Amino acid sequence: xxxxxxxxxxxxxxxxxxxxxxxxxxxxxxxxxxxxxxxxxxxxxxxxxxxxxxxxxxxxxxxxxxxxxxxxxxxxxxxxxxxxxxxxxxxxxxxxxxxxxxxxxxxxxxxxxxxxxxxxxxxxxxxxxxxxxxxxxxxxxxxxxxxxxxxxxxxxxxxxxxxxxxxxxxxxxxxxxxxxxxxxxxxxxxxxxxxxxxxxxxxxxxxxxxxxxxxxxxxxxxxxxxxxxxxxxxxxxxxxxxxxxxxxxxxxxxxxxxxxxxxxxxxxxxxxxxxxxxxxxxxxxxxxxxxxxxxxxxxxxxxxxxxxxxxxxxxxxxxxxxxxxxxxx
Length: 329
Prior knowledge:
The protein contains 12 helices and 14 strands. The protein is an alpha+beta fold. The protein has one domain: Nucleotidyltransferase, domain 5 (2-Layer Sandwich). The strands form 5 sheets. A 6-stranded mixed β-sheet has the order 11-6-1-2-3-12, with helices on both faces.
C-alpha cells in the first residue's frame, strides 16, 4: 500500500482523548481490542509482525480512505484455536457524514463461491491460508485474511479499507480484565469440541459471565435457527458490554489488557488510524450504532444458509452507501 510508511509513524495522543477512546470502544468487544491495541502502540512501539504481514497482501485488496473525513469499512474476524477458520465475521462501517455506524454480522455458514469452488464463508480463510503452505506464518496469515476480505467484498459489494483479526484468547482475557459481564443466557447451552478445546456448559438465566463463560456464550450454535440464533445472542452481548462498561472505572484494567491485545491481534491500522476512527465514533454517539445481519435464507436439510442477493444489494445501498459498482450513493 502506498501510504504504508506513513502508517508506521507513531504519535502520542492526549491522555484525555485516549480515555474517551477506550471507553467508547467498549461498545463492541472486538473494538475494545482494537482501541487498546492502537493506544498501546501509540505510546510504545509498532509490531514488526504486522508490518511484515502488510508486505504480503496483494495490491488492490484495501481501498485507502482518510478516516477523519471519509466513511471507513473495517472487516472484523474472530479465528478459532488454530487461527485457521473464521468463527466470527463482522463488517463495520463508521460514516462521519451521516453520523452513524453499522456493524453487520455475516453468518459463518453462508454459502459463497470462492475461486472455482463453493463453500461456507468460514472455510475461505483456511483455503487462503493453505494456498501459501510452506511459507512463513506471516505469509499464510496474510493470505488467509486476504481470501476472506475478497469473499466478503464479492458477497456484499462493499469495499474494505481495513481488517482486524483477533483470537478468542484475547476475547476471554479482555472480559476477565473488565470484571465480567452480567447477561441473561436465553437457553441451556451444552456442547463439547475437544479438537477446539471448546467445552460449553451454561444454564439458562441471568448470571455473571467471566471470560471463559462469555466465550462459551458467543460460540454456542445449537439454536433452532443455527448460526442466526448465535448472531442474535452475540449482538445482545455487545449491547450488554456497552451498557455496563462505558465507565472510566474500568480504565484501571488497561495495563494488563495491553499485552493480551498485542499478542493476539492482526491489523494494518496504525495507532493514528484507531484514534481517528474512535474520534468519529465519539461524535456519532451510541444511539446511532446499528447492528444488523446479512440477509440469508435457511435451506431445509442443508448445513449452510444462502445469501439473499437482492436484499443484500438493498442493504449495501441503504446502510453502507454504495451502488453495485462500489461507488458512493
